[in-house]
Amino acid sequence: MFDWREETKQVAEGLSLPIALGEQEYSLHGFRWLIANDAIQIVQPDNYYFGGMIRSMKVARMAAAFGKNCTPHMSGGGLGFLYMMHFVSALANAMPHHEFKGLRTNVEFECKTSSLKVVDGKIKVPTGPGLGVEIDPGYVAKHRR
Asked: Listing from the earlier edge strand, what are the strands of the sheet with 69-70?
């Protein structure tokens, strides 16, 4: 179980295989314990579940301070792939491979700075304000309260 921290540490000590964890972790305290006590080697905050990029970046920086890598988890849909791309592009301790669930979304948008095509396993991160895309005003209008 993800919140059995001491038991996770015991598993990590018993294996030569690196332990990745974090997609369900909800607290900075929990990540701090896991990282500081060497219970995990690969840190995986989830931008949606954990509460956004700022909190996730704090965890990634904690991991970097302890020489650990970060490859975030990606849950949900919407524009999650854009959050993931921007987050990973800002990580000093990003691993070379990341969870990618594709470009499917029901959010109507336009991206003028990237084709958003995967080429040789890579994709160009959009630039510009926000996520680097323009959400269709008609799409926004039909989702007002």
From this structure: 20-21, 42-43, 69-70
Element holding 135 (H helix, E strand)? strand 134-135
Local confidence band at 2 (pLDDT 50, 70, 90 cut-offs): confident
Tokens of 64: 């970097």
Residue 71 CA to residue 98 CA, distance in Å, equals 6
Question: Which tokens sit at 48?
Answer: 């949606």
Domains of the chain: 5-141 (3.20.20.120)
The model carries a pTM of: 0.88
Mean predicted lDDT score pLDDT of the chain: 93
Q: Which residue from 58, 50, 135 is spatially nearest to 90, judged by alpha carbons?
A: 58
Residue 98 confidence (pLDDT): 87
**Cα–Cα dist 75/47, whole Å:** 8
- Of 66, 68, 85, the residue nearest 126 (C-alpha): 85
Q: How many residues does the chain have?
A: 145
